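Throughout our pipeline, every protein is held as a single compact record rather than as scattered files. The remainder of this section carries one protein's record, kept here as part of the documentation.

===
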Amino acid sequence: MHTASLNRDFRQDAFVAAFTRDGAERWAWNFGFSVEDVAMDERDGVVVVGSYEAGREDLGVLGPLPGNPATLANVYIAKFNRVTGEPLWSRGFTASGPDRGSPGLESASLAVTKEGFAAVLGQFSSMLTVGARTLEAEGRSDLFLLGLER
């Protein structure tokens, strides 16, 4: 069983856990910094989206992930096996937020199809890089829609 450890600098951390129908713990993972949304697919997958600070050691099971170490607004998406907790994959996307004190994503919603494809609708400020494409907010903040295969 994984033992959670607190994010040293911000005194908070994110976690995802699974329990049996009887309430017994199956597995749990923690990682810095935030979880914004969680969704399950019909093939025993749990997908999680949130934000992180690049270069931190407390990304744990997620990382290392690429990103801008000057902000807490980098975006991650990770998938776990719902039954065993095994990490299946994780992706990080570089962002630039307002400052180091930013709480990360202002909001993000996640949907997963029964085939296991994930889609994230989120809000970012400044810039967000997805693959070779950099999105720039046209005001204080903007929305992004990101689709991922299994």
Q: What stands out?
A: The first strand starts at residue 14 and ends at 19. The radius of gyration is 15 Å. The chain has one domain: 14-148. The CA atoms of residues 20 and 131 lie 37 Å apart.
